[in-house]
Amino acid sequence: MKILIAAAGSRGDVAPYTGLGAALRRAGYDVALATTDTFAPLVRAAGLEFRSLPADTRVPGGVPDRRELMRTAAAFISELGQGFADALADGADLLVLSATTAPLGWHLAEAMGIPSLGLYLQPTAPTGDFPPVVTSSRSLGRLANRATGRLALRMADRVYEPAVARLRHRLQLPPASASAMRRRQEQASWPILYGFSPALVPRPSDWRPGLEVVGNWWPYHDAAEQLPADVEDFLRAGPRPVLIGFGSMAANDGERLSEIAVRALRRAGLRGILQAGSAGLAADGDDVLTIGDMPHALLFPRLAAVVHHAGAGTSAAALRAAVPAVTVPVTADQPFWAGRLAALGAATDPIPFRSLTTERLADSLSQVVKQQTCTRAAASAAEHLATEDGTGQALKVIQQLTDG
Q1: What CATH number is given to the structural domain containing 135?
Q2: Alpha helices, DSSP H only, in 226-357?
């Protein structure tokens, strides 16, 4: 039984599917993960077949405004659509789609006559409980939240429209718009599992049947893997440090951010680890260490706090490790997750990226590390996450689909 998972975007949009794919492989499935070439090493390290999706996932430097973000998304989707059909050239019996790939994958599933399933990392369906996660972090009221959610879907349809038209032509399918296909899937109660914790986002009661919140899927890492010796030495040399990193955000802004980070750490009297990321954070000193990528599951439990951009994966990893956060959201869904962490009490009030200063960061670090309120809230959330089995829930649904 061949399962093809298709996911595209930043590292946080892809890595959770490596752990899920590895679990499916252990359950006896033949699993391929189609994504962009940047993440081929992640896919192969998990023991999965890699299939290439042609698209540039690099995030532009600075903080893009909404119009620039839409232009970047449109170019990304256009490029993705041109080669998307190639990912199915070797066939599949089930197509598993992320929120980014689903509007294209639906057409492939139709052409191949195979079932498909949505496994999403962000809540995408309109609800009165909150506005669209990519447009606002503040509730607009139930009616306005739902109306704005429907508008966000229509805007996404427009971004996908040209790529969908070309893809259906290539697949020799009759014309059908992106919006018509989405409505068809909604009316059929196409199943979507959401891979985040209900501790952060409970399932809205006004969602249609077929939408379920099951808990996180965690990135794959080898059980035998250990932290590098220099990281272990630094961790053992003093009190628990604070990790500061912005993932794939803030490209080309490393010098300014590094200076703010180090000054804030020293002002708060804390040791720190800077994770280089796309920003290129770097600093030297007895009280600070610079690192590259390494598994959150190994590092986060050893920390006093994490300063991060509030991506969905990093937010969940910090909670899982019972570590409080200072969030510095940059764009897209990050303000939404930052607000959720603060509402849970596991993070300080967000510091918008454009408003980040040494003083604000130092004050938030002092609050989150020394007052312990956020630490207790993070520990409580970690207990909740430990009871969840998002991977097991997904496996159960996939088995139902493939057995049928």
Answers
A1: 3.40.50.2000
A2: 229-236, 254-267, 296-299, 312-320, 334-344
Per-position pLDDT tens, the chain of length 404: 999 999 998 899 999 999 999 999 999 999 999 999 999 999 999 999 999 998 665 544 445 555 666 667 777 887 787 778 887 778 899 999 999 999 999 999 999 999 999 999 999 999 999 999 987 668 889 999 999 999 999 999 999 999 999 999 999 999 999 999 999 999 999 999 999 999 999 999 999 999 999 999 999 999 999 999 999 999 999 999 999 999 887 777 889 999 999 999 999 999 999 999 888 999 989 999 999 999 999 999 999 999 999 999 999 999 999 999 999 999 889 999 999 999 999 999 999 999 999 999 999 999 999 888 999 999 999 999 999 999 999 999 999 998 86
Residue 118 lies in a domain: yes
Contact call for residues 284 and 230 (beta carbons, < 8 A) = no
Contact 261, 283 (CB under 8 A): yes
Same domain for 175 and 60, yes or no, is yes
Its sign, for the CA torsion 294, 297, 300, 302, is negative
pTM exceeding 0.70: yes
Q: How many domains does the chain have?
A: 2
DSSP of 61-102: SS---HHHHHHHHHHHHHHHHHHGGGGGTT--SEEEE-TTTH
Q: Are residues 29 and 149 in the same domain?
A: yes
Give CA–CA dist 131/336, Å, rounded: 9
User: Do 111 and 48 share a structural domain?
Assistant: yes
- For residue 106, give its domain range: 2-216+388-403
> Hey, what are 128's tokens?
């009165």
Q: What is the largest CA-CA distance in the chain?
A: 65
